[in-house]
Amino acid sequence: MLPFALTAVSVVFAILAIQAKRLMTSAIWLAGVSALLSIVFYLLGAHLVAVVELSVGAGLVTVLFAFAISVAGDDAIDMQPVINRPLGIGIAVLFVLVLFFYAAQAGYTPAASPELESSLGEVLWQERGLDMLVQIVLIFSGVLGLLGLLAEAKAPLEGSVAEEISARRERDLNKMESQLSEPQEVSK
Amino acid sequence: MLKLFLLLTIGLPWLGAACIWLIGDRRPRLLHAFAVAFSAAAGLSALAMLPYASEEIAISLPLGGIFGNFSLVADGLGILIAAIASVIGCLAIIFATDYMKHAHQLARFYALVLFFIGTMSGLGLSGSLLLTFFLWEITAFCSYALISFHNDDPKAVAGGIKALIMTQVGGVGLLAGALLAYAYLGDYAISTFLAQAGTLPPGVLAVIGFSFLLAAAAKSAQVPLHSWLPDAMEAPTPVTALIHAATMVNAGVYLLARFYPAFAEIPGWSTTVMIVGALTALLAGLMAVAAGDIKRVLAYSTISQLGYMVYAVGCGAIFASQFHLLSHAIFKALLFLAAGAIITAIDTRDLQKMGGLGKKMPFVRLAFIIGSLGLVGLPIANGFFSKELILEKGLESGPLALYLVMLAGAGITALYTLRLNWLIFAGEPRGPEPQHDGLPAMRVSLGILALGTLTSWLLAGGLGNMFAGTLPFHHIEAETTLTVAEHIFSAPATWVAMAVILLSGALWFGRAKLAPLGRIFEPILVHDFGFEWLQTQISRLVRGSAALLQHTQTGQVNWNVAGILLGLLAVLILLARGISS
Amino acid sequence: MTLSPLLIIMIGVIGLLGAGFYGLLVSRNLIKIVVALQVLVKAALVGLIAAGNYNGQINLAQSLALTVIIADTIVAVMGIALGVQIRRHMGTLDVRELSKLKG
Predict the structure, then answer these.
(1) Which ipTM score applies to this complex?
(2) Tens of pLDDT along B472-481?
(3) Which of A134, A147, B87, B417 has fewest C-beta within 10 Å?
(4) Cβ-based burial of B507 (10 A; exposed 0-12, middle 13-18, buried ≥19)
(5) Using CB atoms, which residue from C14, C85, C101 is nearest to A100?
């Protein structure tokens, strides 16, 4: 019974994370979701994933959020949503209902007779070997991307780039217009 | 041997295109030499294939999966197309060495022309529906890129885009037909399709037949998809002669001829083809009478002659249509190249600024008049034999009304050709003095093509023989050239057509009295019978609806997510209906 | 309709999905959007592990879930890094403002 209760609580946490006014609050609720779910995973027998989820999901990502919020600032609280809240709730609830319909219709018979399953190491490194390879590539590309982003941060540009971009565009447009207005030479 | 020649015919121009692209614009003399050498070699290897024609698959490249086998078949139809493309391509390139002497970006020009020549040969020789579609689209791309070759000229760019979009309409038809055929037969091979077309459900076969007709109409500039061809005249003239007169525009006729045995049984298909052809021949001929630009007159006449070929396919006269395709390729290339020589000599395309050029340009005049003889279809020239063959078949197996339309078309052809010659060569000079009477390389091409125009009808027997031997589904009977000629001269249809041509010639000399009539009809003719307007409306509609839809592209992540979710919901709800029922 | 254990977990999964999608719909802050994405991925994880537990193939489920966690963490890291950079250069994290900069 415990896993069910914990999942239900994690849904509440998730809603709180989404509804939170401050980004930091939101990040902390998210860490809460992660922690609860890692317990659920442990209870369901997924020990490795539980550990990883707790360290990465609740630990690393939360630290990163905290870092980002401290750099980017915790402002922009009172922004009105682009899609107003009732409409957003409506779409989300409709979606939940349709999914629930599917979940209730499904048969829930175990797909195959549970054979003697290979050990986690075998599954991880042999049967899903390609996955591991892809993950390694993914991690490397992630690290490289992050380095690229942070390297640029060392040389912050003067003033707002947005202003500069728009000024540049304006100039280009003017140039094009003046070119267009000149009489075209028609070649044969 | 056949395999080698096949690969050379397609591969040499492509190789040449790559080499020329790599050489770049710095060495124009080398470019000219390379282009001529590669295209001449390709032309020779295409001609060398002639004795080896066979219906067997020569080369097959298994791609696996849904791509099937890409195969090449060197049968009569295919070799005819490949030979026309390579030989006339070679002559057009020889012509271009003078015509494009002072042009910029020669490498781009030659590379695209060579790329086109190889692709066109491949299109003829392809034995797979999917390969045909790919090559079909490459020819459309080359045509677009060459129409817009002078890409600093807005008219050229617009003409290129128009040609691209309108031929794409046809390309979609071809793809749809090919995929449908694959879905039912599990094979892209053209021979399989022709053999088993009868086993397809009639409705499906009809859809394939009409979508191929759409493809052909767009490519061969048939009414109502014809208006891109006159606008394509912004291309350099050798390109016009090659792509928009002699080869690419024939692809539609080729497609119809190739698949005629499969579609002949579809109710209404042959009649539709005949009507499209006859309408095109008549309307385009009328528009040619009113056009004021030398290349536009020739473009309308090309459309009209393509109408003849399409009409012939509708009548079931495959041989006549392909024979006319050969004749037309030669004499129309000659006419366009001669027009190109005139344009470089006086630097204008406006017929009102020509006149009296005959005395200064006797050689070009001779070439142009020989080409005109072919176009009008007067005895000696190749156009006479092929056109009379078509008219005769039309009288034999088509409705009388359409035959009369075609007959009127022949008369109109004579009328506008006479007008064209008159405006260019007769009377007093109205424009600049001509600078030359065809430069040396131009004269070589013009001479060879003029000779071809006068003699290519001698090939009728050989061509018929090749068709009869290698096209098992078309049931063509071989006849010797002599019987064909005898046949034509003894048929009453021929003499009727001659009389009509003479009559319309007389009409030109009585034009003073007809002037009021002309004033009434001229606006309609110049404005393309309203087709231009219709297309403008359609494109405006498309643009308007696109602009409306553009508002949904806010670029905001929230709305994008909402769109994704609602789309997913719609799918789920539709599926749920299936589950619960 | 019997409330089988798997169904109860699935209800939780659907609840998490709903919360995540709601967040994607109404958040204008880039970092908040990353949070919502995280919630969505957690839902997928729970679904995977529950199904593995139910089918007796927990190890397979674990290895798949591991892949998902890694991919998702990289998404989060990149999203956060992008957010920081955008904030530094454009002075805002509002996706509505950012969409005005599209070229």
Answers:
(1) 0.88
(2) 888 887 778 8
(3) A147
(4) middle
(5) C14
